[in-house]
Amino acid sequence: MSRTEERAEGAGPFTTRLTWRLSDGSTAVWDSRRARKRGLLTVRASGESGNRPRRADTASVDRLRRLNAIAAGAFAAGGGLFVSGAAVAQFGTGGATGAWIYFLGGLFFNTGGYASLLQVINAPRQDSRSGALSPRLWRWWSYEPGRIDWLSTFLLFAGTLVFGINLLGSLMQGLSVRQANALIWSPDLIGCTLFLVSGHLALVEVCHGRPGIRTRDLGWWIVAVNQLGSVLFMASALADFTRPATGSVLNVDIANWGTLTGAACFSAGGVLQFYERP
Protein backbone atom coordinates (compact mmCIF):
# COMPACT_ATOMS: atom_id res chain seq x y z
CA MET A 1 0.00 0.00 0.00
CA SER A 2 1.58 3.29 -1.06
CA ARG A 3 1.51 6.43 1.04
CA THR A 4 1.88 10.18 0.74
CA GLU A 5 3.55 11.99 3.62
CA GLU A 6 1.61 15.03 4.75
CA ARG A 7 3.14 16.52 7.89
CA ALA A 8 6.03 15.96 10.27
CA GLU A 9 6.08 17.62 13.71
CA GLY A 10 8.81 18.01 16.29
CA ALA A 11 11.70 20.34 17.06
CA GLY A 12 15.01 20.85 15.30
CA PRO A 13 16.22 17.59 13.73
CA PHE A 14 13.79 15.48 15.76
CA THR A 15 10.44 14.15 14.51
CA THR A 16 7.96 13.33 17.26
CA ARG A 17 4.75 12.96 15.25
CA LEU A 18 4.25 11.96 11.63
CA THR A 19 0.99 12.15 9.66
CA TRP A 20 0.56 10.59 6.23
CA ARG A 21 -2.22 9.54 3.86
CA LEU A 22 -2.51 5.94 2.72
CA SER A 23 -3.57 4.86 -0.76
CA ASP A 24 -7.05 3.89 0.44
CA GLY A 25 -7.69 7.48 1.55
CA SER A 26 -7.24 6.88 5.28
CA THR A 27 -4.85 8.96 7.39
CA ALA A 28 -2.25 7.41 9.71
CA VAL A 29 -0.64 9.23 12.65
CA TRP A 30 2.51 7.98 14.36
CA ASP A 31 3.29 9.56 17.75
CA SER A 32 6.71 8.55 19.10
CA ARG A 33 5.74 8.36 22.78
CA ARG A 34 2.34 6.76 22.15
CA ALA A 35 3.91 4.15 19.87
CA ARG A 36 6.67 3.10 22.28
CA LYS A 37 4.68 3.38 25.50
CA ARG A 38 1.32 1.99 24.42
CA GLY A 39 2.17 0.22 21.17
CA LEU A 40 -0.48 2.18 19.27
CA LEU A 41 -0.72 3.99 15.93
CA THR A 42 -3.80 6.02 15.00
CA VAL A 43 -5.65 5.59 11.70
CA ARG A 44 -8.64 7.62 10.52
CA ALA A 45 -10.62 6.21 7.62
CA SER A 46 -11.60 8.54 4.80
CA GLY A 47 -14.86 10.32 5.63
CA GLU A 48 -14.86 9.25 9.29
CA SER A 49 -14.58 11.69 12.19
CA GLY A 50 -13.19 9.34 14.85
CA ASN A 51 -9.78 7.78 15.22
CA ARG A 52 -9.14 4.04 15.29
CA PRO A 53 -5.98 2.98 17.11
CA ARG A 54 -4.04 0.13 15.53
CA ARG A 55 -2.20 -1.98 18.08
CA ALA A 56 1.21 -3.51 17.52
CA ASP A 57 1.61 -7.28 17.42
CA THR A 58 1.05 -9.23 20.63
CA ALA A 59 4.74 -10.00 21.21
CA SER A 60 5.70 -6.32 20.95
CA VAL A 61 2.87 -5.26 23.26
CA ASP A 62 3.85 -7.84 25.89
CA ARG A 63 7.47 -6.68 25.66
CA LEU A 64 6.50 -3.03 26.12
CA ARG A 65 4.28 -3.90 29.06
CA ARG A 66 7.05 -5.82 30.85
CA LEU A 67 9.68 -3.13 30.28
CA ASN A 68 7.26 -0.44 31.41
CA ALA A 69 6.51 -2.34 34.63
CA ILE A 70 10.23 -2.77 35.36
CA ALA A 71 11.02 0.90 34.73
CA ALA A 72 8.01 2.16 36.68
CA GLY A 73 8.67 -0.12 39.65
CA ALA A 74 12.38 0.72 39.69
CA PHE A 75 11.82 4.48 39.72
CA ALA A 76 9.07 4.23 42.32
CA ALA A 77 11.28 2.11 44.61
CA GLY A 78 14.45 4.10 43.93
CA GLY A 79 12.69 7.37 44.63
CA GLY A 80 11.25 5.95 47.84
CA LEU A 81 14.70 4.87 49.01
CA PHE A 82 16.15 8.30 48.25
CA VAL A 83 13.33 9.87 50.27
CA SER A 84 14.26 7.57 53.19
CA GLY A 85 17.97 8.36 52.81
CA ALA A 86 17.32 12.10 52.82
CA ALA A 87 15.02 11.77 55.83
CA VAL A 88 17.72 9.87 57.73
CA ALA A 89 20.27 12.54 56.80
CA GLN A 90 17.97 15.38 57.88
CA PHE A 91 16.32 13.97 60.98
CA GLY A 92 18.44 10.99 62.03
CA THR A 93 22.07 10.29 62.67
CA GLY A 94 22.85 10.12 58.91
CA GLY A 95 26.35 8.84 58.30
CA ALA A 96 26.85 5.41 56.79
CA THR A 97 23.18 4.39 57.15
CA GLY A 98 21.92 7.17 54.88
CA ALA A 99 24.75 6.59 52.39
CA TRP A 100 23.88 2.90 52.03
CA ILE A 101 20.18 3.71 51.57
CA TYR A 102 21.13 6.15 48.82
CA PHE A 103 23.38 3.54 47.21
CA LEU A 104 20.59 0.95 47.11
CA GLY A 105 18.22 3.53 45.67
CA GLY A 106 20.81 4.34 43.03
CA LEU A 107 20.80 0.71 41.86
CA PHE A 108 17.05 0.96 41.31
CA PHE A 109 17.54 4.20 39.36
CA ASN A 110 20.14 2.43 37.18
CA THR A 111 17.62 -0.33 36.48
CA GLY A 112 14.84 2.12 35.66
CA GLY A 113 17.07 4.14 33.35
CA TYR A 114 18.24 1.11 31.39
CA ALA A 115 14.72 -0.36 31.17
CA SER A 116 13.52 2.97 29.74
CA LEU A 117 16.28 2.87 27.13
CA LEU A 118 15.44 -0.74 26.25
CA GLN A 119 11.83 0.26 25.74
CA VAL A 120 12.93 2.78 23.11
CA ILE A 121 15.37 0.38 21.43
CA ASN A 122 12.80 -2.43 21.16
CA ALA A 123 9.64 -0.42 20.51
CA PRO A 124 7.83 -1.26 17.24
CA ARG A 125 8.49 1.17 14.38
CA GLN A 126 6.01 2.60 11.92
CA ASP A 127 5.52 0.93 8.56
CA SER A 128 4.68 3.91 6.36
CA ARG A 129 3.33 1.77 3.52
CA SER A 130 0.82 -0.28 5.50
CA GLY A 131 -0.06 2.23 8.20
CA ALA A 132 0.87 -0.18 10.98
CA LEU A 133 3.54 -0.78 13.60
CA SER A 134 6.10 -3.42 12.67
CA PRO A 135 7.86 -5.57 15.31
CA ARG A 136 11.61 -5.52 15.94
CA LEU A 137 14.05 -8.22 16.95
CA TRP A 138 15.16 -7.92 20.58
CA ARG A 139 18.31 -5.85 21.10
CA TRP A 140 20.22 -4.89 24.23
CA TRP A 141 21.77 -1.79 22.70
CA SER A 142 21.51 0.63 19.76
CA TYR A 143 23.00 3.96 18.74
CA GLU A 144 20.29 6.33 17.47
CA PRO A 145 21.10 9.91 18.54
CA GLY A 146 18.87 11.21 15.76
CA ARG A 147 15.80 9.96 17.67
CA ILE A 148 14.63 12.24 20.47
CA ASP A 149 13.25 9.36 22.54
CA TRP A 150 16.56 7.46 22.33
CA LEU A 151 18.62 10.54 23.21
CA SER A 152 16.36 11.45 26.14
CA THR A 153 16.41 7.98 27.70
CA PHE A 154 20.13 7.53 26.98
CA LEU A 155 20.94 10.75 28.87
CA LEU A 156 18.65 9.62 31.68
CA PHE A 157 20.49 6.30 31.94
CA ALA A 158 23.88 8.04 31.71
CA GLY A 159 22.79 10.33 34.53
CA THR A 160 21.97 7.38 36.77
CA LEU A 161 25.43 5.91 36.09
CA VAL A 162 27.14 9.20 36.96
CA PHE A 163 25.10 9.34 40.15
CA GLY A 164 26.62 5.94 40.95
CA ILE A 165 30.06 7.58 41.19
CA ASN A 166 28.60 10.13 43.58
CA LEU A 167 27.02 7.40 45.71
CA LEU A 168 30.20 5.32 45.81
CA GLY A 169 32.14 8.39 46.88
CA SER A 170 29.65 8.98 49.68
CA LEU A 171 30.55 5.56 51.13
CA MET A 172 34.24 6.45 51.40
CA GLN A 173 35.61 7.65 54.72
CA GLY A 174 38.26 10.25 55.46
CA LEU A 175 38.00 12.20 52.19
CA SER A 176 39.59 15.64 52.03
CA VAL A 177 37.48 18.61 50.95
CA ARG A 178 39.00 18.49 47.48
CA GLN A 179 38.36 14.76 47.16
CA ALA A 180 34.79 15.13 48.42
CA ASN A 181 34.01 17.79 45.82
CA ALA A 182 35.65 15.72 43.08
CA LEU A 183 34.12 12.34 43.93
CA ILE A 184 30.77 13.38 45.42
CA TRP A 185 29.77 16.90 44.43
CA SER A 186 31.00 16.99 40.81
CA PRO A 187 29.32 13.71 39.72
CA ASP A 188 26.16 14.85 41.49
CA LEU A 189 26.14 18.09 39.52
CA ILE A 190 26.86 16.32 36.22
CA GLY A 191 24.16 13.72 36.87
CA CYS A 192 21.59 16.41 37.66
CA THR A 193 22.51 18.27 34.47
CA LEU A 194 21.99 15.09 32.41
CA PHE A 195 18.63 14.56 34.12
CA LEU A 196 17.55 18.12 33.27
CA VAL A 197 18.55 17.81 29.59
CA SER A 198 16.83 14.41 29.38
CA GLY A 199 13.66 15.85 30.92
CA HIS A 200 13.67 18.81 28.53
CA LEU A 201 13.91 16.49 25.53
CA ALA A 202 11.07 14.40 26.96
CA LEU A 203 8.92 17.54 27.24
CA VAL A 204 9.75 18.46 23.65
CA GLU A 205 8.74 14.96 22.58
CA VAL A 206 5.43 14.88 24.41
CA CYS A 207 4.54 18.44 23.29
CA HIS A 208 5.79 17.89 19.70
CA GLY A 209 7.86 21.05 19.84
CA ARG A 210 8.18 23.85 22.35
CA PRO A 211 7.40 22.62 25.90
CA GLY A 212 3.93 23.58 27.05
CA ILE A 213 1.08 22.40 29.26
CA ARG A 214 -0.91 19.28 28.34
CA THR A 215 -2.97 18.55 31.45
CA ARG A 216 -5.10 15.89 29.73
CA ASP A 217 -2.06 13.86 28.67
CA LEU A 218 -0.79 11.30 31.20
CA GLY A 219 2.58 11.21 29.45
CA TRP A 220 2.94 14.96 29.98
CA TRP A 221 2.22 14.62 33.71
CA ILE A 222 4.85 11.90 34.06
CA VAL A 223 7.48 13.95 32.26
CA ALA A 224 6.56 17.18 34.09
CA VAL A 225 6.69 15.57 37.54
CA ASN A 226 10.05 13.97 36.75
CA GLN A 227 11.42 17.26 35.43
CA LEU A 228 10.36 18.98 38.65
CA GLY A 229 12.26 16.27 40.50
CA SER A 230 15.33 17.01 38.36
CA VAL A 231 15.12 20.73 39.22
CA LEU A 232 14.93 19.89 42.94
CA PHE A 233 17.87 17.48 42.59
CA MET A 234 19.90 20.27 40.96
CA ALA A 235 19.06 22.64 43.83
CA SER A 236 20.22 19.95 46.24
CA ALA A 237 23.46 19.40 44.32
CA LEU A 238 24.31 23.11 44.26
CA ALA A 239 23.69 23.39 48.00
CA ASP A 240 25.86 20.34 48.73
CA PHE A 241 29.13 21.98 47.63
CA THR A 242 31.79 21.88 50.34
CA ARG A 243 33.60 25.17 50.92
CA PRO A 244 37.38 24.63 50.66
CA ALA A 245 38.07 27.37 53.21
CA THR A 246 35.82 26.06 55.98
CA GLY A 247 35.18 22.42 55.04
CA SER A 248 31.44 22.95 55.57
CA VAL A 249 28.56 22.36 53.14
CA LEU A 250 26.88 25.45 51.68
CA ASN A 251 23.42 24.55 52.99
CA VAL A 252 22.71 21.14 54.48
CA ASP A 253 18.97 21.74 54.81
CA ILE A 254 18.51 22.64 51.13
CA ALA A 255 20.67 19.68 50.12
CA ASN A 256 18.59 17.22 52.15
CA TRP A 257 15.18 18.69 51.42
CA GLY A 258 15.97 19.09 47.71
CA THR A 259 16.91 15.41 47.55
CA LEU A 260 13.86 14.34 49.55
CA THR A 261 11.30 16.29 47.51
CA GLY A 262 13.02 15.55 44.20
CA ALA A 263 13.07 11.83 44.97
CA ALA A 264 9.39 11.99 45.92
CA CYS A 265 8.68 13.41 42.46
CA PHE A 266 10.52 10.55 40.75
CA SER A 267 8.71 8.03 42.92
CA ALA A 268 5.36 9.61 42.02
CA GLY A 269 6.37 9.63 38.35
CA GLY A 270 7.15 5.92 38.62
CA VAL A 271 3.70 5.22 40.07
CA LEU A 272 2.03 7.21 37.28
CA GLN A 273 4.09 5.34 34.71
CA PHE A 274 2.38 2.09 35.68
CA TYR A 275 -0.73 3.45 33.95
CA GLU A 276 1.01 4.51 30.71
CA ARG A 277 1.20 1.04 29.25
CA PRO A 278 -0.31 -0.95 26.37
Low-pLDDT ranges: none
> What is the overall pLDDT average?
90
Biggest sheet overview: 5 strands, antiparallel
Number of strands: 7
Report what the structure shows.
By secondary structure, this protein is an alpha+beta fold. It folds into two domains: 3-55, no CATH class; 58-273. The protein has seven helices and seven strands. It has helices at residues 32-38, 58-91, 95-121, 148-171, 177-207, 218-239, 252-273; strands at 3-11, 14-22, 27-31, 40-44, 52-55, 125-127, 132-134. A five-stranded antiparallel β-sheet has the order 1-2-3-4-5. A two-stranded antiparallel ribbon has the order 6-7. Helix 2 packs antiparallel against helix 3 (95-121), helix 2 packs antiparallel against helix 7 (252-273) and helix 3 (95-121) packs antiparallel against helix 4 (148-171). The mean pLDDT is 90.
Brief sketch in words of this structure:
The protein is an alpha+beta fold. The chain has helices spanning 32-38, 58-91, 95-121, 148-171, 177-207, 218-239, 252-273, and strands spanning 3-11, 14-22, 27-31, 40-44, 52-55, 125-127, 132-134. It has two domains: 3-55, no CATH class; 58-273.
